[in-house]
Design brief:
Oligomer: single chain
CATH architecture of the largest domain: 6 Propeller
Strand order of the largest sheet: 7-8-9-10-11-12-13
Radius of gyration: 31 Å
Helix content: under 10%
Shape: elongated
Structural class: mainly beta
Distance between the termini: 95 Å
CATH topology of the largest domain: Neuraminidase
């Protein structure tokens, strides 16, 4: 039997051992130490089969790239000007200095070259925040009937800042009106119980008006100006859109319009009386659809809430008076063929980010054959439309890749 006493005190450290072989990185995330760079030359054609209603072959151009290892910059150092991953390692013996201490060196200064400076210029179009394609339209749902005329529009906030605002609904009456009717919720709208009646300062022209972030956006009748009316504070701003169609028939003392021919007025958007501007909202923000005084071409402008114009497109080969209505969803402009036939089609699809026309058609149904307003709302991804006094909406099916368009 062997007895063991208590452990004694720790002895002095031993001598250092021999130097081992060069180490090898066993990094958990090796991608942190490589960068993908393009290889000069033409792209590679990639062919793949895809099943939609019928088999199709999709041909894509794929950029050829390769992974290049690089050594991460140690903390406290910055790369020299012009250096990027993939270049030879810079010589530290001549002018490499610590970022801390001397801030006048040619390496670090105050900027980390791997982080771009924040952009402080005017708004730009940027990237498409949601890429999707309209594949099919569902069955229309009747929400209520307007207590006014057979022409008008109805809306929910396309960018609400609270659940309270998201529940509200708004209705306009006629082709042009200075009045906006607000309802607390859809039940109150169905029971025709108004919450507030807004009298805006100007006549709102057309049925393409919009509620966005608690403000009412409309086109000031007889002018090239757009107006934003804050529903909470009643403050408003006004801005010129530019050379747009706007000259309309004269108004009579009873607030109706004179009869006039096309030579006395500018062409109406969608051939809808007194309609010149159609506001739209999608996942990318606000848009306006309109025409020029001397042209039937369709124009689209991306705007900010303060009416700063980010970019403008002329949609090729599209007559703005021949469409029945239009909306924008996921950065794609869609156009409806007819507002007065029961069975119609969404026959126009134009990608505003890639500037490409997308072939195909999607079936559309006008239950009451009198559509006067059509909007997409990104909050619930539904289409809202006003059809012969009825307030309706319809669900849509989106495809994130290729649409099931009918031939």
């Amino acid at each position: 039997m062997k007895l063991m006493g208590f452990q004694g005190s720790r002895g002095d450290p031993g001598l250092p051992g021999p130097v081992g072989p060069p180490g090898r990185c066993n990094c958990t995330f090796p991608n942190m130490y490589v960068h993908r760079i393009p290889i000069p030359g033409p792209p590679v054609i990639q062919v793949e089969e895809k099943m939609v209603p019928v088999p199709v072959v999709v041909v894509k151009e794929v950029e050829v790239t390769r992974l290049v290892p690089f050594e991460p910059t140690p903390p406290g150092f910055g790369p020299p000007p012009g250096w990027s991953p993939g270049m030879p390692k810079p010589d530290l013996s001549e002018n490499g200095t610590l970022l801390f201490g001397n801030f006048t060196d040619t390496w670090g200064n105050y900027t980390n070259f791997t982080t771009p400076e924040p952009y402080t210029g005017p708004p730009t179009l940027g990237y498409n925040r949601r890429e999707c394609m309209l594949a099919a339209v569902g069955i229309p749902v009747l929400h209520a009937e307007s207590q006014y005329g057979e022409v008008g529009s109805w809306m929910r906030d396309a960018h609400p800042q609270s659940d309270y605002m998201a529940e509200k609904r708004w209705v306009t009456d006629g082709y042009a009106s200075p009045v906006l009717y607000e309802y607390e919720n859809e039940r109150q709208m169905m029971n025709k119980v108004q919450n507030i009646k807004y009298y805006v300062d100007y006549l709102a022209s057309g049925t393409g008006n919009l509620i966005y972030n608690g403000s009412y956006y409309y086109h000031k009748h007889g002018s090239t100006a757009l107006v934003r009316y804050d529903l909470e504070t009643t403050d408003q701003i006004e801005a010129e859109l530019g050379d747009i169609a706007h000259r309309d028939c004269g108004r009579l003392p009873d607030h109706t319009f004179e009869d006039c021919n096309e030579t006395e007025r500018h062409p109406w958007l969608y051939s809808r009386p007194h309609n010149y501007v159609d506001f739209a909202a999608d996942e990318n923000g606000l848009w306006v659809i309109y025409m020029r005084p001397d042209s039937y071409s369709l124009y689209v402008s991306k705007i900010e809430p303060d009416f700063y114009i980010v970019d403008t497109w002329e949609v090729p080969d599209v007559n703005g008076t021949e469409l029945a209505d239009a909306f924008i969803m996921c950065g794609v402009l869609y156009g409806l063929q007819s507002a007065t036939t029961r069975d119609s089609r969404i026959s126009l699809a134009y990608d505003l980010f890639s500037n490409e026309t997308i072939p195909g058609q999607v079936a559309w149904y006008n239950p009451y054959q009198g559509l006067t307003m059509l909007h997409y709302n990104p909050v619930d991804s539904r289409l809202y439309f006003f059809d012969d006094r009825r307030l309706l909406s319809v669900n849509v099916r989106m495809d994130d890749d290729e649409p099931d368009y009918e031939n």
